[in-house]
Amino acid sequence: MTRNGTSTPTVADMVKAVTTPPLPLRITAYDGSAVGPRDAGLELHVKSPRALNYLATAPGDLGLARAYITGELIASGVEPGNPYAAFDSLQACKEHLRRPTPAGMRTISRLLRHEGLHRPEVPEIETPPAWRRALAGARPHTEAADKDTVSSHYDRSNRFYSLVLGPSMTYTCALFDSPDTSLEDAQRRKINLVLDKLDLAPGQRLLDIGCGWGSVLVAAARRGIRAIGVTLSEPQARWANAWLAREGLDDLAQARVIDYREVPERDFDGICSLGMMEHVGVRHYDEYFRIMFSLLRPGGRLLNHQITRRDTSQRNGAGAFVGRYIFPDGELAAPGVVMTHLHDAGLEIVHAENQRQHYALTLEHWCRNLQAHWDEAVESGGSQTALLWGLYMAGARWNFERNNIQIHQFLAVRPDEDTGGHWYPLRPWWDA
Fold it and tell me: Membrane-spanning residues where (predicted)?
């Protein structure tokens, strides 16, 4: 094909060089070329040569994400706040990828030379790779590095998160009675399940590690439980403490900006950790659970709620996209690995359950919220953040639905040798 009277290849020529027909989507480009069926459910428009540079310098999910959140790659036929419908086509497209022939490589090289191949600046919301942060002194999972990575994820905008999460401000998997259950009812049920499993009486003491915006603190204080929440995000702590004050519960509960490794109190009756373990790092699981053991009184209970891999054949580390944009230094382990570390720390597991399907439903609701409040979300968090969160949450929903990732609750107890081995009831004491 020719362009402007020359034999310069088109974007469509480049796509044909690395794929086999028929494509499950349509690709159009700034140069007027197109490939793929006209009636495809998904159309990707390559808006500029800058998009090509993103794709060429970071092939795969990372390059696609960079082009998408900067607006250089436009997906038609899907909502920006809820691009879930694109993932089946994108997954199917991977089956059509092929290694280019020598002639195909020449086509790609000529196009990239014509467009001026270079490494473009990465989007402003992208976190540097782990090796670069380590060179700068931020060794993964030290207290300083954890504070930086947590801030990169949670300190974007409280207003933005309120639009996505809804009034509960709960950023973990909800618990649905049915697909028709509202998000608020499902989050309330999840929090009640956590507190019911811990079975704390009024006046007893709870530590919430990674307390977020304080939803568990508020619910615990309403039961008369004395609660401390810890987070590395100052905006989260301010929100949580303001919420407790509005409810008249600040004499019972408080949120602190402190690393869990620095909590001075001991002998808690219960500890919960909801959605925090993703940040810990698998190599630090032993340390983490040993600290949980030391913070609990004998007979005290730990409720650990975390995203997991499906099995040990999957890698622990996050992919390039998730590692740069969502959970820097984040790692996931298979549920059996988590259980081993819990036992090795001296804790006894009482109960475990997989809530994978519930997280898929939760993410569906969050995407709907973002879609419904799109203009406000862009105003409060910026267009890149809004596009990123729609992409991330829709992709996470797709993976939870297909059992590529799971989420587990583990209920464990610190043994109390003074009770002769009877440190919890014979049968579950909570309403499942």
Answer: none
